[in-house]
Amino acid sequence: MHISRERQSGVGMVEILVALLVLAIGVLGYAGLQLNALKSTEDANIRSQATALARDALERIVANPQARSTYLQQNSWDTGAGALGEAPPSNPNCMASSCDSDQMSAWDRNTLRWQAGNLLPAGKIRVQPCDSGTTLTSCVVVAWGDQALGGCVDGGNINTDDSAKCVVMEVTR
Fold first, then answer.
1. Does residue 53 contact residue 88 with C-beta atoms inside 8 Å?
2. Which residue, 95, 99, 125, 150, has fewest beta-carbon neighbours within 10 Å?
3. Cα–Cα dist 22/17, whole Å
4. Could you give phi then psi for residue 2, rounded to 5 degrees?
5. Half-sphere exposure of 94 (CA within 13 A, CB side)
């Protein structure tokens, strides 16, 4: 009686499972990188919107020099986040009729608060004192998410931590 031993040809089940495991680990790693890239893109977009909003505030201050002192008073700003989806401010409505410098200042601050709340997640904006080296000056502060406005500029010093969810621009002129 003759027993023939044939060599195994083809791929066995164990090899297929190992290959699938290696492939699955690679796909999961790629998916994690994609999620991280999406998060970074979202953070960059929010920071860009906040920077544009702070610049808009600076331009409004420069455009209305008669009310500059009102803009620069920290307590003249409503520090709450504008409610997402609420109607834009209409009192006073300086788009429909002419306003004096104080009315324009009030309308600007209400509009900026509304824009912060609708462009940024839990967005907030105000002007407050900040440290500019040897002198104390004013800064436009925009914060979003769970970041408190006071955490962006603390004791006059600007928060430069990478995890800070705020943009700070100095008011100079």
1. no
2. 95
3. 9
4. -115, 120
5. 14
Closest CA to 149 of 47, 81, 69, 82: 81
Q: Are 152 and 131 in contact (CB under 8 A)?
A: no
Euclidean distance between CA atoms 43 and 50, whole angstroms: 11
Residue 88 has a pLDDT of 74
Poorest-pLDDT segment among 54-63, 79-88, 122-131: 79-88
Omega before 92 cis (within 30°)? yes
pLDDT of residue 152: 87
Residue 107 tokens, joined: 């309308």
Q: What is the pLDDT of residue 26?
A: 93
Selection from 77, 125, 139, 86 nearest residue 105 by Cα: 77
